[in-house]
Automatic annotation (TrEMBL):
Keywords: Coiled coil. Pfam families: PHTB1_N, PTHB1_CtH, PTHB1_GAE, PTHB1_hp, PTHB1_pf. This is Protein PTHB1. The lineage of its organism: Eukaryota, Metazoa, Chordata, Craniata, Vertebrata. Residues 288-380 form the PTHB1 GAE domain. The keyword Coiled coil applies.
Amino acid sequence: GRDLICIQSMDGMLMLFEQESYAFGRFLPGFLLPGPLTYSSRTDSFITVSSCRQVESYKYQVLAFATDADERQETEQQKLGSGKRLVVDWVLNIGEQALDICVVSFNQAVSSVFVLGERNFFCLKDNGQIRFMKKLDCSPSCFLPYCSVTEGTINTLVGNHSNMLHVYQDVTLKWAAQLPHIPVSVKVANLQDLRGVIVTLSDSGHLQCSYLGTDPSLFQAPKIESREINYEEIDAEMKQLQKIIKEATKTQDILPKSESERELIVIAEVSPELDAESQAIDSEVKAEAVPSVTVKITIQSRVTAQKPKLAVCVEAPLALSCDQFDFDDLEPDASETVVLSVFLKGNCLPPELEGDCVASYSTPTELNPEGIIKVAQCKFRLPLRLICLPTQPSKTANHKLTIDTNKPPVSFLTIFPDFADQSEEDQSNALGFQFLTGSKITLLASKTSQRYRIQSDQLEDLWLITKELTLRLKEHFKKQNCKDFTCSFSGSIPLQEYFELIDRHFELRLNAEKLKEMLSERAVQFRAIERRLLTRFKDKTPAPLQHLDTLLEGTFREVIALADAAEENQANVFQAFMKLKSATHLVVMLIGLWQKLSADQIAVLEATFLPLAQDTDDLGWEETVDAAISYLLRTCLSKSSKEQALTLTSELCIPKDTSRLKKHITLLCERLAKGGRLSLSTETTTPQTAGMPGGCATIPESDLEEGTVVPGTGATFTNHKHITKQKSKP
């Protein structure tokens, strides 16, 4: 009828209390760091795992009569006279640190001691002998043995760092379930009428109650009374059901509705001014201040919308203060409004200053009370001031572009009032921009001709300013009811500089593959050394280590260094891909202005050059774009049926180099210059190429054998794959 408490201290002392009274304290022999500790009532002993990676059992009776901890500093004679030496009951070497110990005793199973290690869990008898052990595939975080329905077996719940919960019956895996977090503790509870609830606790303090399995259906169909069939009623019921099916399958509910007929409308409003107090958090930009802008998103519902959810997305490296929102059910003519902030998080420029809002909801119907899931979306445009500041124009630059228009030049004080100082007359035809990442861009307007020049030291930095210029010019002339305003480009397309960005991105991708292979080799070597060391340690007559410990430490340092290098290379790949996307947007825009392509043709060109949101290990930009361009060269841009009949490879893989991709891009520009037009309609394709290819083969470059100059470009290709740069016309 008394409460006995055992407390283990950090210095290896076991303090025992009877109720509130201190009974005695004992130091465990050979102690270094505390391990898990439990009490076995069956053997009246304390079981723990020492720093020697051994499971040790100490009888309570031995602890009670052993030397008192308070007398540890006394002389040897006094220690011998004060009690017996503390002797361990039994020891088992498990060769790894333990995370937890549990003693279980059920009616249908013998009493057992369960030990959860770093890679295995062990089931021991009361005398320390191994009953069974199980090697785990993932690093465990917690476990719980519990009663099994099969006699003679014990079930064990094991949580791991892969967000998984495994159910073992002895050593057999019976079930695996996914968890939303890494569990640090797991228990089984009975909550009201619900039995077998799995309660897990995460390292961040989230408590979750989960239910494994389903309730059995207790419904039994009633016996059907024998009665005569009324065919007239069945016929009427069939007609009614067919009418309902016909109403439910009308195409008018599937096709997009106009703005006035939509059931749910998403409206995004971007604040015209930057936030007075920036909401940027964890930004990697090295600027003095990283601004943010507020976006107000409103959801308006004309019907009953069940479980509406809102997701907001912006192009990396831009980031949001919050990107997911859940709402309660919306009644007809109800609305919900949320406010969030957008800021530049990564230390590179985004390829687009746009964002997407997607709202998903469900509307109940007669046949489906839970509702049919529908989606509404809208786009919003972010201000250039979010990533850019005004600065002094620069006279020199490595890269220059000239955009021609058919209207007189407009003062920058008019179209860039947020950047130009109204009191400075010089800024009417010369304006400087500086991105938060440090690069500078200069915008010039000709006083005599209808031209604008954009210049910068980096090709990719020209894109955002060029796009912003064309958009603001179109908006300016649209307000003046001028409908014939057009932009054009007559200079040379900077393919040579564009190819350098492609080579840089491809080189980093190859580096990533090399680092991955080297890291795999070092990991195999590390595990092999570990196995040899473990064999030496387990041997009863251990042999010399022969510097295996030094080799293990050196290999460990190499693994860490390679992992750091791979992580750094991954960040460089991301930045290179962002630069490549910006340059690709610029090249697509210049090709469209150069050849005066329609909106549909520009859309085809963008889908060809910008197929991926980001690179992955399995699929990269180079092979995807090469396959897409090859498809266009064989269909709408083909010169003969011989090209259309070329065989296609079945899969995409990383190429050896970028020479074929460069040739295909050059050939695409050449055929567009000769009058080719982009189209994906089946009328321009042959039956052999009507489907999109999974890969690409080399296009016969008959026109490139002796060296081809693409009209409007500054790149020449020869049969030696040597790139030369022509002097552009002044």
